[in-house]
Specification:
0% strand, 119 residues, flat, mainly alpha
């Protein structure tokens, strides 16, 4: 009847998969190629900051800020750059080592005291 094709395990399997597509997947708009190597973290941060700085200076629009506001923004930008460079200096491994050294030098005042119920 209707389901003979499904119930018969000996039916020709090539008929079932005859209309399938073979070969690699082709994605729309995707290009196949080698992945680019990532630059070091510090270089990336510095380059991004330099590009941002250049784009800000090349943007010439009538600036309605006062001199004090401009100076404040410039100092803020410099402080932010300094913080970013400081953070990018240490790798994760170095940060963990620094934290472990700090914890090792702490007094044991903050440790949980041992409680003995038998003595």
């Amino acid at each position: 009847g209707k389901f003979d094709k499904c119930l018969n395990p000996c039916s020709n399997m090539s008929d079932v998969y005859g209309s399938s597509v073979t070969g690699p997947l082709k994605l729309k708009g995707a290009t196949v190629g080698k992945k680019k190597k990532k630059k070091s973290k510090l270089n990336q941060v510095i380059n991004a900051a330099d590009k941002a700085e250049q784009s800000k200076t090349s943007w010439n629009v009538d600036d309605t800020r006062t001199e004090a506001q401009k100076k404040f923004d410039e100092v803020q930008r410099q402080r932010e750059m300094k913080k970013i460079k400081e953070k990018a200096k240490l790798s994760h491994k170095e940060k963990v080592e620094k934290l472990n050294n700090y914890l090792a030098t702490l007094s044991e005042h903050y440790d949980v005291p041992k409680v003995s119920w038998t003595k």
